[in-house]
Design brief:
The chain is of the alpha/beta class. It has helices spanning 2-22, 27-34, 54-74, 87-96, 129-140, 164-178, 189-201, 209-218, 235-250, 271-277, 290-301, 310-319, 324-341, 347-363, 367-378, 382-385, 392-408, 413-419, 425-441, 443-458, and strands spanning 38-42, 46-51, 81-86, 154-158, 184-188, 222-226, 254-259, 281-285. The radius of gyration is 25 Å and the shape is globular. The structure holds adenosine-5'-diphosphate (ADP) and magnesium ion.
Length: 459
Amino acid sequence: MAQQIYKDKKEELSNQIKLEISTIISTAEYMLWIYPIKPLSYDGQQLCFSAPSDHAATTLTTNYTDLFLKVIGDLNLPVERILFISEKEAEKLLSVAPPTETETLSSEKKNPFVSKYTFENYVVGSSNRMAVVTAHTVAENPGLNDGLLSLNPFYIYGGVGLGKTHLLHAIGNYLFEHRPELNVIYVSADRLSNEYFSSLNKYNSDKDSYRNFYHKYAECDVLMVDDVQFLQKKGGLQEVFFHIFNDLYQNGKQIILSSDRPPKEINDLEERLRTRFLWGMTTDIGLPEYETRINIIMKKLEGSSAQISQDIVCYLAEKVNTNIRELEGALLKVLMYTQLTHKEATLDVAKEALKEHTKDTVEQIDSDKIISTVSDYFHVPSSDIIGKKKNKEIVEARMVAVYLICEMLNLPLVTIGQIFGGRDHTTIMYSRDKISNMIASDKDMKTTIEDIKNSLKCR
Ligand code: ADP
Ligand code: MG
């Protein structure tokens, strides 16, 4: 049985990784190096691929291992190490000692958390300090509720790629090391939903399937659910989760939740769940400031042999200010580019390497692009749009920019507030609704919005 799962698992992991890599590197490069490799074995930690030749195996090992590990980290896959060997070598190994994949399964408890997502590797800045401190406290005292201070549930929210998943795994890794007796579960809301529906589907053939599902989650010591916004619109699952939550809470078990938005902004969430999400501690993770971005790059370079000069680090930190995942991607691009082209990592080479990266992001519409388009349209500087001035024309441009960002980008209101110089989410909501009402009643405003949208598409 276990063998069956693992057999499928290596294919599944390989497919996920290859698919993600295909979106990062050029098609030519992908077809040359990545496409031909095949998953050979997976023992719960190490994923081994076979490559068509010795040369390919060596190239993959030297030039692509980091990329694989990065993608594995991004996708949160349960893989610690990657190995490439040639087909010839693989045949030799297989004929000597056919490794049955069950053999490698040990009865020892395996750490299910991504090993590099630790507190040590997490850079602290003003954008995430509160979240990190709370996460630490929770990791040290899971389930703490002394009447005065309750950190249960602990709810973290913030935009994409700002470090929520990393923080949850850091708590997991900490508990795995310090409290190995505890049953700590990390699950994404998506996965929870899949498991729930599949347990219902299996109900006819296996009467225990649903019960097993329920007990697995309701009887653990620490339950971490990532991206709870995906509970939206899932009525049945919300009902079950409500009961799981109550069981855990009443037994003093720790619940940790993450989301891209605060509880009150999760639409279609049962009110009783929303209320419970607010019982404990809610903290947000904001956009990292320049200093933090620099520190993050330095952290990622720690322990790597790559030589990257300070001016490249500053260039990257300046250029990529949206989220940390993008920042890592840009750094990796520079590293890969210098490796593949054997060029020295100068600032010009870094710029060259990021040409495509910046082009990719420009093609997408983002908040900067919306603000600069609105700025051109109203002849008001971008700095005033996100600033504090209250002149009539600036205020109008600002509200239009807020409206467009709300409508065109699926960002939490809190994040939008941060883009506009730390404004409160209620101010953002006010601007959005005001312009929305004006569009309905005022023809000029309707045309303005349409013109700006068209001009955005042409940029
Ligand atoms: P989210 O879950 O919020 O979308 P992730 O936790 O997946 O974001 O983070 C994206 C990437 O950025 C990960 O590789 C993570 O290690 C890295 N990262 C995020 N925040 C930090 C930080 N403060 N210090 C170091 N790395 C970080
Ligand atoms: Mg995440």
